[in-house]
């Protein structure tokens, strides 16, 4: 009886529990939030002057304005999408998905235009991508020196007569565009293991401005086509836990250029010169057509591994090793496009020109990069960071014999040589110690040794020794100060004067990237926050490089840089914020060179004069650039009910001056030779042939206002307006006489496109409907 009662009681309790479970309401559905904005309307622009420079990296054509965003957030996933400027050359699309941290995926596509000029023109006709021709009848008139026909203006008098090519020039908007599409996929296989896959594909199309000169006296400028694509792929696996992590990855990059070479007609010749003229590089008596190699297709592959391990005593060590291979095997362009030189008659005297040593580049570079870091902070008073980096760049391209070559498509010579493999090996050691001896204050002392060994340069080895000290005051709610001072001494060894002579340079030349150098740099940042509503910051950066060393006579001698900024931000009440910033930058430099003919020894004239060693042929150039920047802003976010207003004004002006000096400038300015045996530098009858370069100046202003008014909780209207004005004076920009802003394509020694720095005044306004959900 008792057992039956216990069983009956158990069954009753079980049935009651089952009934309660059946009657219990279902669990609520996962929370879901959907948000988004539709900002859609009309945009219009107005421009006076250089409209391409006003747009530059934008597409500001009249039409629809669009900016749409969407987001959905649930307990299971997060989804976002953004769209900007639909249908324009600067459109952008992006979508992101996150499956609660297990899967993350992002895909995007964006376009960025580069607008060179809408008022440019060219007499060359692009017959096919990269092939440019000129009118053959016009070229023949120029070649025959037909009276009254000017091809390339060579004197001030010839500038008064329009070039025959000016009348043949056709308008040609020079624009380029970069389209990039890609995705990133991150997958967490387990709590400790995840995988990452990333792919980007970038295509460049359109045209860019490029110099294309046959000789020193004929400078040509072409709208060179762009048609290339770069594909980048990364695949990685990463394992981590509380003690450390390991990551292995493969990175690949493939660049494919559909333009292999640029072929273009010579504006001063329609037939190849015969017989060969040894001065073809200076008088234009060379080939009727020339070619340039376009950037070659190539690829890069890198395998890398990285690891981090946490050690006792607040220490950790991490390291990375990567192995890289770069290859390029494009077909090589011929020795010359000059058919007179590319003939069996010339091959008899220059057998090396009969064919190329090989038909393709077979270029290959292998690289090894290693990095080791150790960081420790055993107590609150002291910390140490040590870093070592190793880089080995090994060129494995087979030697190319260019002993016999063609100088500028004009002259076959035997003064060339074999290519060099320019290997680079770099070792860098960096040590930094931190001392926290006073509250809120840290003192850091550091030392860096950077040693670079390079083949084929004037110095085979150069080493930088850097000492630095930093003082930081951080954590104080009222004041923040950072002071940094750094001194670097670069010392080069293994100097080879022969390497300079092989390149035709003066033995006293030292290039700035390897010359002995003393560098002093300093930074100061001072920030004051007297109340939560106000903050004021001043920053100063200054640096000086002095280049020196035994025998250093030519090249960059010194430069100085100074940057000052002061900014104020005020937040007097919720929704109101305003501020201003002022900055001034100054850059100065000093360099020397020598205007001389090659060393005439052993065939110098009877007088013994040799301009190669004449100190009175030396001249100096001082550069001095000063830039001022001002920025002011005011943000009112719902300070007025239902209204947001943002106003900003930016101003910048720059003055870049070039100051020439030295004995050679004196000779040119007075038409007087200062050294016996030298000749007067100017033509007979001239008292001077020196013209100083005028300063390059520019001023840029921008005013912008954006207003948003929400007349309902989810619906509003937006008004945007910005105004820009750019004024510039650039001696390299040539306009038609008496027609400012109208490009001239035919000037002294050049047939160009008219591209240059020109002023503009532009404004853009938009009226939009806003919907938020």
Shape: globular
State the total count of DSSP E strands.
Answer: 40
Helix % is under 10%
Total helix count? 8
User: Structural class, from helix and strand content?
Assistant: mainly beta
**Mean pLDDT over all positions:** 92
Through-space gap between termini: 69 Å
Which sheet architecture does the biggest sheet show? Answer: 26 strands, antiparallel, barrel
Q: Roughly what fraction of the amino acids lie in strands?
A: over 45%
If you compute it from the alpha carbons, what radius of gyration comes out, rounded to the nearest whole angstrom?
Answer: 34 Å
Low-confidence parts, pLDDT < 50 over ≥5 residues? 1-24
Question: How is this structure best described in words?
Answer:
The protein is mostly beta strands and 773 residues long. Helices cover 8% and strands 57% of the residues. It has a 26-stranded antiparallel barrel. The chain has a four-stranded mixed sheet with strand order 7-8-14-15, with no helix packed on it. The relative contact order is 0.09.
């Amino acid at each position: 009886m008792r057992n039956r009662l216990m069983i009956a009681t158990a069954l009753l309790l079980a049935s009651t529990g089952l009934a309660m479970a059946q009657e219990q309401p279902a669990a609520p559905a996962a929370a879901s939030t959907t948000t988004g904005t539709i900002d859609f309307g009309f945009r219009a622009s107005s421009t006076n002057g250089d409209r391409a420079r006003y747009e530059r990296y934008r597409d500001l054509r009249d039409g629809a304005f669009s900016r749409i965003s969407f987001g959905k957030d649930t307990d299971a996933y997060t989804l976002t999408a953004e769209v900007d400027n639909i249908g324009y050359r600067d459109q952008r699309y992006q979508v992101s998905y996150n499956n609660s941290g297990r899967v993350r995926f992002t895909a995007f596509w964006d376009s960025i235009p580069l607008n060179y000029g809408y008022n440019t023109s060219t007499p060359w006709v692009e017959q096919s991508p990269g092939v440019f021709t000129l009118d053959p009848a016009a070229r023949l008139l120029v070649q025959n020196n037909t009276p009254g026909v000017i091809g390339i203006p060579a004197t001030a008098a010839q500038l008064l007569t329009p070039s025959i090519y000016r009348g043949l020039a056709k308008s040609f908007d020079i624009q380029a565009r970069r389209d990039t599409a890609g995705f990133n996929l991150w997958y967490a296989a387990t709590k400790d293991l995840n995988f990452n896959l990333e792919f980007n594909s970038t295509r460049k199309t359109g045209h860019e401005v490029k110099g294309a000169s046959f000789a020193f006296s004929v400078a040509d400028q072409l709208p060179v086509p762009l048609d290339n694509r770069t594909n980048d792929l990364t695949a990685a696996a990463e394992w981590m836990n509380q003690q450390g992590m390991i990551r292995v990855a493969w990175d690949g990059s493939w660049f494919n250029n559909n333009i292999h070479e640029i072929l273009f007609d010579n504006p001063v010749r329609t037939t190849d010169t015969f017989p060969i003229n040894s001065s073809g590089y200076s008088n234009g008596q060379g080939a009727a057509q020339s070619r340039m190699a376009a950037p070659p297709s190539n690829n890069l592959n890198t395998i890398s591994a990285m690891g981090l391990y946490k050690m006792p005593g607040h220490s950790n060590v991490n390291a990375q090793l990567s192995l890289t291979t770069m290859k390029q095997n494009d077909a090589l362009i011929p020795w010359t496009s000059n058919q007179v030189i590319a003939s069996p008659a010339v091959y008899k005297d220059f057998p090396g020109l009969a064919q190329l040593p090989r038909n393709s580049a077979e270029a290959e570079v292998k690289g090894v990069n290693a990095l080791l870091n150790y960081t420790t902070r055993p107590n609150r008073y002291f910390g140490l960071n040590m870093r070592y980096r190793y880089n080995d760049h090994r060129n494995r391209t087979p030697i190319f014999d260019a002993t016999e070559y063609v100088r500028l498509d004009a002259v076959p010579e035997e003064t060339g040589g074999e290519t060099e493999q320019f290997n680079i090996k770099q070792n860098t050691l960096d040590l930094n110690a931190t001392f926290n001896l006073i509250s809120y204050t840290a003192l850091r002392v550091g030392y860096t040794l950077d040693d670079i060994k390079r083949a084929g340069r004037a110095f085979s080895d150069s080493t930088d020794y850097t000492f630095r000290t930093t003082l930081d005051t951080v954590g104080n709610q009222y004041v923040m100060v950072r002071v940094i001072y750094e001194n670097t001494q670069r010392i080069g060894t293994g100097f080879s004067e022969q390497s300079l002579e092989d390149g035709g340079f003066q033995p006293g030349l030292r290039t700035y990237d390897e010359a002995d150098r003393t560098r002093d740099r300093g930074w100061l940042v001072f920030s004051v926050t007297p109340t939560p509503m106000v903050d004021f910051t001043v920053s100063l950066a200054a640096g000086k490089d002095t280049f020196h060393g035994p025998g250093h006579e030519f090249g960059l001698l010194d430069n100085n840089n100074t940057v000052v900024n002061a900014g104020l931000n005020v937040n007097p009440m919720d929704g109101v914020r305003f501020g201003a910033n002022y900055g001034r930058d100054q850059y100065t430099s000093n360099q020397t060179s020598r205007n001389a003919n090659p060393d005439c020894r052993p065939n110098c004239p009877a007088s013994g004069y040799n301009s190669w060693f004449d100190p009175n042929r030396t001249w100096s150039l001082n550069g001095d650039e000063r830039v001022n920047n001002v920025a002011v802003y005011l943000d009112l976010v719902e300070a007025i009910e239902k209204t947001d207003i943002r106003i900003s004004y930016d101003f910048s002006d720059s003055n870049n001056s070039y100051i020439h000096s030295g004995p050679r400038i004196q000779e040119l300015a007075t038409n007087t030779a200062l050294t016996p045996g030298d000749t007067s530098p100017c033509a007979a009858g001239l008292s001077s042939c020196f013209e100083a370069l005028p300063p390059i100046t520019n001023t840029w202003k921008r005013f912008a206002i954006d207003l948003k008014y929400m007349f309902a909780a989810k619906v509003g209207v937006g008004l945007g307006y910005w105004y820009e004005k750019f004024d510039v004076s650039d001696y390299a920009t040539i306009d038609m006489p008496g027609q400012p802003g109208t490009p001239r394509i035919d000037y002294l020694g050049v047939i160009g496109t008219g591209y240059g720095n020109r002023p503009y005044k532009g404004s853009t306004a938009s009226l939009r409907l806003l919907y938020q959900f």
